[in-house]
Amino acid sequence: MAIEWAGSTPELLLDLDRDATGTLRSQLETALRDAICTGRLKTGERLPSSRELARQLGVSRGLVQECYGQLTAEGYLCTRAGSATRVAPVRAVDGGPAPAARPDASRLRVDFAAGLPDLASFPRGDWSWAQREVARTVRSEALGYGDPRGAEALRDVLAGHLRRVRAAVAEAEDIVVCGGFAQGLGIVLHVLARRGVRRVAFEDPGYGDGATMAAAERAGIEAVPVPVDDLGLDVGALGASGARAVVVTPAHQWPTGVVLAPERRRALVDWACERDGVVVEDDYDAEFRYDREPVGSVQGLAPGRVIALGTVSKSLAPAVRLGWILCPPALTRAVAEEKRLADRGSPVLDQLALAALVESGRYGRHLRRMRPVYAARRAALVAALAEHAPAVRLTGLAAGFHAVAHLPDGADERRVVAEARRRSVGLYGMSTYRASGAADPPRLVLGFGDLSETAIRDGVREVAGLLGP
Predict the structure, then answer these.
(1) CA 439 to CA 326: how far, in whole Å?
(2) Are the CB atoms for 444 and 413 separated by under 8 Å?
(3) Is residue 418 a contact partner of residue 429, using CB atoms and an 8 Å limit?
């Protein structure tokens, strides 16, 4: 994003040696030429005015003007009347190497990547209003480091929201604001490690990017997979794993989309009480429901045994980088201290903007606006597969914005993914989310949150021949 400088000029570090044999003008021309050719100064970057650069370097303005004129004549710089001097597009010159070109990223016409909301529908107007409102009304004392748990205004709003919408047992003093799920999980695992937890269980299939397992490793905790079936996490297998903590996505399991069955929820709470265990609940995709009523959080069943993690990455956008940790009261102080040591607290102004968004009703309005959008995209996916690949069965559609496509027996999941990419369509196999990496039974995880209905139909049509007879 290009932003014009307003009433100021950029600084530029250049070294001139007044004891050298060459003239100052020659040194300045060489320094600027080298900075451009090596990529230190990029195409389009603004240079200081001749007056300002002369002041910075302690030379005459005429010397800088002569230097700029020479480099403009050579094609390194470009100027326009009434505009600043900028770096021109430059090829390799004087036999020197051209700046290294970045490799072109794979171009996909349709990408069924999961886990992304509709980024184009981010409520820019509402977010801008919230930021302006905060900047206008925030007290000066609120601009310091403050409480490492986060801004009280946001924690108050979140506590009320979680009580109303997620049936959680939530008080503001037990909420710690964090920078999203990854940071929240890392903080929690470090706290559990210091309290003697040596093994944590994760759902299988589950998080496939490796970051979650790496978080356990960094905390010094062994991560063990526990299978998921049509009823959710296998609590019997959890009991046999020897783990004292487990990370679960009960509302909409990632990535299978199943909901933790009521009997499994009760069994999970019983396991935590009997084993002195801790349940880390990732409240994934809890905001968007289609075919059934929302289910409450597991935290509401056992607030002393469950740490609930939530974010606005799916409801707003990942770029907001705000989430929360709802702690059992016995762990709140330790979690807050771990957060303080990590970064002294999340950005206060963004926290206050989110609080204003929720409290004003704009956040709820955004969710209500997006639910029918995602429902229509889900319907488009179902219809397109029914028309072009009827042998493919879809599951996990009751919530969120991804589904699981069950390919016919004997299908080669990895070949399907590779062939689709050659057709400029991004497909993603379940094998990447399984602890074993096995590609059988063949499944695809299809995200539709950031795709238009037209793109969904086009993408399915393009790869239909790969998906089955």
Answers:
(1) 36
(2) yes
(3) no
Residues 134/352, Cβ–Cβ less than 8 Å: yes
Q: Which of 226, 291, 292, 294 is nearest to 264 (CA)?
A: 226
Tally of CB atoms within 10 A around 274: 9
CA distance 256 to 228: 8
Phi, psi values for residue 229, rounded to 5°: -125, -160
Rg (CA), the chain: 28
Is the preceding omega at residue 225 within 30 degrees of 0, hence cis?
no
**Both tokens of residue 337?**
């201290």
Specify the pLDDT at position 105: 39
- Cα angle 306, 311, 317 (rounded to 5 degrees) comes to 165
- Mean pLDDT of residues grouped by 10 in the chain (469 residues)? 56 85 88 89 90 90 91 86 80 42 61 94 97 96 93 96 93 97 96 96 85 86 95 96 96 91 96 96 79 81 97 95 97 97 95 96 94 95 96 90 94 96 96 92 96 96 90
Burial class (CB within 10 angstroms; exposed 0-12, middle 13-18, buried 19+) of 66 = middle
Residue 169 main-chain phi, psi, to 5 deg:
-95, 100
Token representation of residue 292? 């059934």
Q: What is the structure's pLDDT at 277? A: 96
Instruction: Identify any residues that bridge with 178 across adjacent strands, giving them in sequence order.
Output: 323
Identify the residue whose tokens are 């094609």.
75
Instruction: Please tell me whether the overall predicted TM-score, pTM, comes out greater than 0.85 for this model.
Output: no
Residue with tokens 């009434």: 82
Sequence letter at residue 307: I
DSSP string, 218-252: HTT-EEEEEEEETTEE-HHHHHHHT-SEEEE--SS
As to burial, measured by CB atoms within 10 angstroms (0-12 exposed, 13-18 middle, 19+ buried), residue 408 is middle
Tell me if residue 162 falls in helix, strand or coil: helix
Would you tell me the crossing angle of helices 362-388 and 453-467 to the nearest 10 degrees?
30
How many other C-beta atoms are found inside a 10 Å radius of the C-beta of residue 24? Answer: 18
Helices 329-343 + 181-194 axis angle, to 10: 120
* Distance, first Cα to last Cα, the chain: 47
Contacts of 168 (CB under 8 A, 6+ apart): 162, 296, 297, 299, 300, 303, 308, 326
